[in-house]
Design goal:
The protein is 24% helix and 25% strand. It contains 5 helices and 8 strands. It has helices spanning 2-6, 18-25, 80-86, 95-104, 162-172, and strands at 30-34, 38-42, 46-51, 60-66, 110-112, 120-125, 130-135, 153-158. β5 (110-112) and β6 (120-125) form a beta hairpin. It is globular. The two termini are 27 Å apart.
């Protein structure tokens, strides 16, 4: 709920530098880079992404994504710092429960049409510019114990601009 309400992960903004994110989430991550112009760090459930014009330019924060569907895998999916702050996480985050709890805090989500429909639905929180993707159809392995289910939050991402939402509505609405 805090990520959706604030648009940050423990205060780490999508525009923060790699050093700023490391100062908050720690150095226990996998770092990936494509052609030296894009990079992301995988902190388990949380991923931060950066871009730069060339190798001579600094990294600019682009967005973050919480791969919430990874919770169904169990194990050490959640970063140590996040686990220390919030405790144990369930294997499933039900969107209807999340939406109800957010509404209780005065944080409301808007539905946004999306190319991934009907397999997924997309929801957006305008103040924080955070989007939430929810599973709406079964996938391979759905019957496995602990696997993601219909109605589970699949991912939480930042930042989705007003212009992106307008484009989605015009294109898929």
């Amino acid at each position: 709920m805090e990520v959706i309400a604030s648009g940050t992960v423990l205060g780490a903004k999508p525009t923060d530098s790699p050093e700023q994110v490391t100062a908050i989430l720690g150095s226990d991550c996998a770092e990936n880079s494509l052609n030296g112009r894009s990079m992301w760090r995988d902190y388990g459930m949380v991923e931060f992404f950066w871009v730069r014009e060339s190798r001579d330019h600094p990294w600019a924060g682009h967005h973050f994504t919480l791969q919430v569907h990874r919770l169904s895998l169990g194990g050490s999916t959640v970063n140590r710092v996040i686990r220390e702050r919030y405790g144990r996480f369930d294997r499933h985050l039900r969107f209807d429960n999340l939406e109800r709890l957010l509404a209780g805090r005065g944080v409301h989500m808007e539905d946004v049409p999306d190319a991934n429909a009907p397999a997924h639905t997309l929801h957006w929180q305008p103040a924080s510019r955070v989007s939430v993707m929810v599973r709406r159809s079964p996938e391979r392995g759905e019957g496995r114990r602990g696997g993601a289910r219909i109605g589970d939050v699949y991912a939480v991402s930042s930042s989705m601009s007003v212009e992106q939402v307008a484009w989605y509505r015009a294109r898929y609405g």
